[in-house]
Amino acid sequence: MEKDISVLEETINRLNFRFEALQKITQLINLASNFEQVLDEVMRLTIELVNAQAGVVILIDQTTGELSSHITIGGRPREELGEEPKWKLNKGVMGAILKVGEPAIISDASEYPIFRDELSKAIRCTVINALCVPLKRKGETLGVLEVFNKKLSTEESKEGDKGVAPFTAEDQKLIVSLSNEIVMVIENAMLFNERERKVVELDNLLKATEAIASAMQLDPLLDTIMERGMKVMDAEGCSVLLVDEKEKKLQFVAASGAKKEEVKKLSLNMGEGVAGWVAQNDQPLLIDDVSKDDRFSKKIDETLTQKTKSLICVPLKVKERTIGVMEVMNKRGDRTFTERDMVLFKPLSAQAAVAIERAKLYEDLEDMYISTVKSLAAAIDAKDPYTRGHSERVTRFAMLIAKELGLDDKTQRDVQLCGLLHDVGKIGVPISVLRKKDKLTDEDWKHIRRHPVLGAEIISPIAQLKELIPNIRHHHERYDGKGYPDKLKGEDIPLISRILAVADTFDALTSERPYRSGLADKAALEEMEVVKGTQLDPACVEVFVTGYRKGFIMREE
Q: Which of 86-100, 145-159, 535-549 shows the lowest mean pLDDT across its residues?
């Protein structure tokens, strides 16, 4: 009778223990927002339940089939983990557990030296025995839970035994009985983690497409594509190559981590390298290890001093026409790209293709627009043979100042247009005045001083040039307020007008005139130094002189 009562008490205690363990496991559902914390707690509880030294949960990515693991060492910080094993899906002890789908107790880990040595490196102590339990969901294996080195009981430790205790059938039964709840907790955390990952991915993709769609000029657009492409794909590098129809080649136009000038010297023949193959065959490629793929060319890596390990390369298409390719290299964290990455990369590259084509068209329109303005400026300059090429030279000098001042791309474009158009008002000045070799009369000067106002009036009906009107009107104002037409002073004069005044003065001083010879550059710069702060903006003079001394002004012969 007493024996029966003892057995009953033991059974009740065991059931209570399992019930308490079950409660602790199910409470972990509340931690679903932190996947790593859930795994840590699952393993900590499992280790505690069977009194083990360490444990690992190995999960199979249901999309890619890749393995990931989470190792926990009882009572020791995560920082003390050693090298993580390279798990093989169909090999070793774990592979056998997954294949058979049944739990197993390994009494002597030395019988499985690879299993023992890899895990021993990870937990930084020798694995002697193990208990392995498959984690299943509706007949499908989610992964494997393993615990190592069962600790001795308190009594055994007191007796001085320094070994480990064997895992028992009761230990196995306990973990198996909790495995459904463990799976549920892990799966719940995985679903939450996956949802969070997708939210981040979609947010990154949305921000990338918005940034790409808003860029109109090709070079800034390519920089945006590089930056956003690496962020969305969590990659170390990104590059874009465009088809050169004339040369029948793929021309590099951008590559992360390399200078634009260096990149644009690189090209591939159609069919050459991975990018050439993708462009020629109009098919995307995902390569886990480029060293094992004959299509990969080392030429670009050697030129850019980089090392490509894995990559995704996709064609850039616009209306069924391949305009180039885009690729990302080396997933961060020494990971490889997956089909899921390919799914994410395709819409990004599609958006990039449309944006690149639009930017190229915009660039062509800009070039045509600038060419038209140049023709107009040349026609105006032609009225006076002594100022032929004046507008082009002033534009060149003004652009130097704009770049030295660090002005943004849009402002630099405005400087370029204003340089070309600053004298457009001379179209209303009589040729007799422009070509006069004698000293100008007061009446002649009235005509000359009217040209900034006329220029502003001429461009005012053109909507695209309205912003430039003040710059044209005030390019003959003086810094001390004694200029024309409105006697503006200092920084009341638009910056572009002050830039034009410096550029215009340098060209005027160095150009031949009917009544005098042009000065040498050095003498002209000295004169400009004298009038800075009175006639000219000191800051604009200083950066012009600095740029000149750097050799940025190439004088025409």
A: 86-100
Q: Let me know whether 173 and 34 are in one domain.
A: yes
- Residue 557 confidence (pLDDT): 40
Do 42 and 162 fall within a single domain?
yes
Closest residue by Cα to residue 328 from 405, 232, 246: 232
Looking at the fold, whether 349 and 387 belong to one and the same domain comes out as no
Q: Do residues 176 and 231 both lie within one domain?
A: no
- Which amino acid, residue 55? G
Report pLDDT digits (tens) over 30-76: 655 677 777 777 788 888 888 888 888 888 776 666 666 667 665 55
| Residue 202 structure tokens | 């979609």
Taking alpha carbons only, the member of 154, 157, 148, 158 closest to residue 125 is: 148
**Angle formed at CA 502 by CA 501 and CA 505, multiple of 5 degrees:** 80
Distance between start and end Cα atoms, the chain:
119
Write b or e for each residue in 208-232: b if 16 or more Cβ atoms lie within 10 A of its Cβ, otherwise e: bbebbeebeebeebbebbbebbbeb
Give the mean pLDDT of 7-33.
59
pLDDT tens, residue by residue, 254-276: 888 777 677 778 888 899 999 99
| Claim to verify: residue 276 and residue 234 sit in the same structural domain | yes
Could you read off the pLDDT of 491-527 as tens digits, one per residue? Answer: 999 999 999 999 999 998 998 776 667 789 899 999 9
Q: Are strands 130-137 and 311-318 parallel, antiparallel or unpaired?
A: unpaired
Contact 318, 357 (CB under 8 A): yes
- Together in a domain, 355 and 386: no
CATH number at residue 543: 1.10.3210.10
- Does residue 158 share a domain with residue 93? yes
Domain residues for 406?
Answer: 382-549
How many domains, the chain? 3
Q: Is residue 373 part of a domain?
A: no
Helix-, strand-, coil-residue percentages of the chain, each rounded to 5: 55, 15, 25
Closest CA to 314 of 212, 218, 241: 241
